[in-house]
Specification:
Two copies of one chain form a homodimer. By secondary structure, chain A is α/β, with parallel strands linked by helices. Chain A has two domains: about 10-155, no CATH class; about 170-344, Rossmann fold. Helices cover about 35% and strands about 25% of the residues of chain A. In chain A, the strands form three sheets. In chain A, strands 6-7-3-4-5-8 form a six-stranded antiparallel beta sheet. A six-stranded parallel beta sheet of chain A has the order 11-10-9-12-13-14, sandwiched between helices. Chain A is elongated, with a radius of gyration of 21 Å. The two termini of chain A are about 40 Å apart. The mean pLDDT of chain A is about 95. At the A-B interface, helix 7, helix 9 and strand 14 of A face helix 7, helix 9 and strand 14 of B.
Chain lengths: ~350, ~350
């Protein structure tokens, strides 16, 4: 067995010199290198943007969707939609572990979800068994490879697969919240009623403890009532994250007239940068988890209002992110019920 | 005198509810509020993207450029190019200070540069005196207003105006470097031969002290020779910031086989995110100063390679950024000479 690059560049076919995610085509030969993991794939959870695009192109015809997916994977060696550039994740069982990875916390037969994108994962599909159009899921007979740097989460035995997957999908945000938020902090969470927002909210309340203040910003009365019923957030404010002055004023009101230590932006629409920046105190932190964030709007916007704050790009990964996030569901009956109702 | 909003929203005419930068039109009445500063403007340094667009539209005709600038300012109350959205900065003399700002470190008659964008600064032009097409500079008889949150730098008496302005233009980067870098750190600076790159390089070398290692990445041999001649950087590597694996390998080689503590990206071209991410050690920091940075490429890219690093959006402002940056020029004969040769 040869040893490959930990980031998988040994499988990049074209163009040379880039990482697997940026590559057009990667090598999906299923003989593994000594630092790779082979997976028997059970299903692909196609990224929502990608699945929608394929579905539209196929005019909703399931056979055509199958054809299109096979065509992409045969052409590129990975399930990366050429239009959207996005991938998704997979669920499967560990089939083999390269000899250089013998010491990791996985054994053959473990059921895992990949936590790196399909857009960089070598994949070979033998057969598509079924397509569940309503949940963007493709059941397959297939094999895939995880690189040494690839992330995965072991699917727990004490909760349903669907529940674990729904949470793992946004695992970066609550885990980063756990690391950022300190006892006594005041925290503003924008888009607090969404999936990542609620997980962050729960984690922030736990971390600030009895002397902190966690403010949940939501868009309407119905969301506010939900959060209050479930006991999520010390204060709930209703505002529009594209209206920074309104968000600022309501946040100050909910925080004894003071700016907050940390803001966490989980609102997945554009032009919300200033609502995460304005309410934060000097030397405080704005954490951007939303993929709709514009780098330049944040950088120039903070300068424009003279805010000396630390602005963080929400890394989808931080150490132990899967465990931290799954633990929330074990700990909180409310969160489990919410996920059961809303995301399963 | 009435008191206005510290961010200047009291002058937003349309649309309502946004900040001055996002506004289409702001009020440029030159009667100041109690927390505003009135400036007698001497010149506008139009942002390069904006000036180029206007110059092209005017086919290089100076009278037409004048007309276009007056038209924009009369229409919008600020010099914000409607095509590029960008502004620039101004130089002028303090003409009046509102009574609520009496305690700031400015007095009437002080010469200052505005360090917030013209795209949010109320401006009224009486007359355009001259246009220096080669340096995007417009000499004017005009007045402008700085809000309470507006940033400015006093122009120092011990260096030329042009030298101070060239440095203040990128003041955020070296000042952030001063705050991020600690004694003994290893630091990779991408695009180290550019204006912000060299200022960061100098500051990083000062901060790491004798036990640190500052690696300057440049694109070609000529730049490498320049930096070595000037004694900037402990090590200089030649690579292409759009080729992350090459950058990684050369960085490891220049850092005893180890990943660095901090990377600072000053390369103003696209697709350089991974070159700033890959060479950083777990729990290290990647600081993105380049405006060509893509938020999503950084966020998804770090996840894709399983890098648990802190990624920072380069805020154009941090406390005392002007003073920290001007101090570099006072301290370093080499930097002054470089700036004299390259940017004046």
């Amino acid at each position: 067995m040869k040893k490959g690059c930990k980031y998988g560049t040994h499988r990049v076919l074209e163009p040379q010199g880039v990482l697997p995610q940026a590559a057009y085509k990667i090598d999906n030969d299923m003989n593994i290198y000594s630092n790779e993991i082979l997976i028997d794939v059970q299903s692909l959870n196609i990224d929502s943007a990608s699945f929608t695009q394929i579905e539209e192109e196929a005019h909703g015809n399931v056979e055509k969707i199958k054809e299109k997916i096979l065509e992409i994977v045969n052409e590129r060696g990975k399930m990366q939609n050429p239009v959207t550039g996005s991938g998704g994740m997979l669920i499967g069982t560990v089939a083999a572990i390269g000899e250089d990875l013998k010491d990791i916390d996985l054994k053959v037969g473990d059921k895992i979800a990949s936590l790196v994108s399909l857009s960089l994962t070598p994949l070979k599909i033998e057969e598509i068994l079924d397509i569940k159009v309503d949940i963007d899921r493709v059941d397959v007979k297939a094999k895939a490879i995880l690189f040494e740097s690839g992330l995965y989460g072991k699917l727990p035995s004490d909760m349903s697969e669907a529940l674990a997957l729904a949470a793992l999908d946004v695992a970066g945000a609550p885990a980063q919240t756990a690391k950022l938020v300190k006892p006594g902090d005041s925290v503003l969470i924008l888009g607090a009623a969404g999936k990542s927002g609620m997980l962050c909210l729960y984690e922030a309340m736990k971390r600030v403890g009895p002397t902190g203040n966690v403010i949940a910003m939501v868009i309407d009365e119905a969301q506010a009532e939900h959060l209050q019923k479930w006991g999520l957030g010390h204060k709930v404010i209703i505002s529009d994250a594209t209206k920074p002055i309104d968000v600022l004023n309501k946040t100050l009101e909910a925080n004894n007239g003071k700016e907050v230590d940390i803001s966490i932006n989980c609102v997945n629409v554009q032009n919300c940068e200033m609502s995460a920046i304005l309410p934060v105190k000097d030397r405080g932190t704005a954490y951007f988890f939303s993929m709709a964030t514009s780098f330049t709007k944040a950088a120039l916007g903070a300068e424009g209002v003279g805010k000396d704050i630390n602005m963080i790009i929400g890394n989808g990964y931080t150490k132990d992110h899967a465990e931290i996030t799954l633990w929330e569901l074990r700990e909180s009956e409310a969160l489990r019920q919410i996920f059961d109702q809303l995301y399963l």
